[in-house]
Give the backbone structure.
Amino acid sequence: MKLQKDYKFWFCTGSQDLYGDECLAHVAAHSKEMVEKLNASGVLPYEVVWKPTLITNELIRKTFNEANIDDTCAGVITWMHTFSPAKSWILGLQELRKPLLHLHTQYNMEIPYDTIDMDFMNENQAAHGDREYGHMVTRMRIPRKVVVGHWTDPEVQEKIASWQRTAIGIIESSHIRVMRVADNMRNVAVTEGDKVEAQLKFGWEVDAYPVNEIAEAVAAVSQSDTNELVDEYYDKYEILLEGRDPQEFKKHVAVQAQIELGFERFLEEKNYHAIVTHFGDLGALKQLPGLAIHRLEEKGYGFGAEGDWKVAAMVRLMKIMTAGMKNAKGTSMLEDYTYNLVPGKEGILQAHMLEICPSIADGPISIKCQPLSMGNREDPARLVFTSKEGSGIATSLIDMGNRFRLIINDVDCKKCEKPMPKLPVATNFWTPQPNLKTGAEAWILAGGAHHTAFSYDLTADQMGDWAEAMGIEAVYIDKNTNIRDFKRDLALGEIVFR
Ligand code: MN
């Protein structure tokens, strides 16, 4: 599955004709050089494309509408090189439908004390030109990212790079299609939600299919295709028989290989990018999809367990946002399972029955075949591994009844103190920021779920900016969280987002 498209970002420089042609020639030369060097920096994940200087209402409107209809344009970067009267931007901004970044920079870095004159001042006046423009964007209540600093500053370039991935999330969200092959688990609240509102807000299409339709696609997979994939599994993963007969074990694994191929073909044929299953509604499937789902998630599909389509869509979204990232550490669905409450060692063991994406794995990955302890099917084969250390974000998108809220928690992933030889599932272990007690208290007060969409490779800012662009509430649980302020944030959200 192709995760990354060849998106570009337009670089639109604002000015006006008050300063004469010579000045405008300098404006164009400056912004062209900036675009070239930004592209050459190697920092930006997506190319920036220079556009002719915008100096009139007509040209701004025309350029922004061209950006709207260009499928390869994932966002617009604006910068007011010189003063650009902001009324000229109103019509264009009213019609712009692409993500917007305001790069508040200046061509020149240092004031040239010995030579500075009014010509210099006129050609380096973003300090007031960008304020005029920024005023209008704020007055029009348009969500945008503002990045401040010299355009050669690595931190500035990193911020542009980071926003590009947010913009990809904004653009690609409306292309996410989730296949539900079962309804939500009976009586469970937090995995439910308003699918119509999700389509209005995020553009997600969430459709149901009878489980036996996909089971038929699984049954149609040939024995030879299945055997070939089983061989691949046996090459790639450690086989942990744990006393089981090798032939019987292999048969269980083959069931998952057939499910992987059947599911993948069904999803491809019908153009879906995420899937949910439910252990209690498996139709003609012989096992709960385990190994099959681990692998599909690694290929870029979103997944949510027990019918959790919000998590499936979020995992897919976050995989698209991180696509092509160098040294990516992984993105997966996870579930808060068990606490370690020993003072100084507090943390949450993250796991699921199966289904965790091996992109987050650290070290060897094994296949085990164990009873599921729920449902009524064969023991499913699954991948077992532990996860990388390092910081990450756990997100939970919940339906508050009248709106969606995205909860974003900075977490520190650690190695478990000891191996867990009897636990037949993939795990991660993290301590939520600012610490377990406050982090979990805030999470519960915010109404966060037990399922999360987790990534090592995205930041709270990126997800918060995505939420802002979607017009939904975002709450952050991080090193600065204290419960009094957090409760006030939640209370404010009730007013702002009702
Ligand atoms: Mn679950």
Remarks:
- The pocket of manganese (II) ion is lined by residues 305-306, 335, 352, 451 (CB under 6 Å).
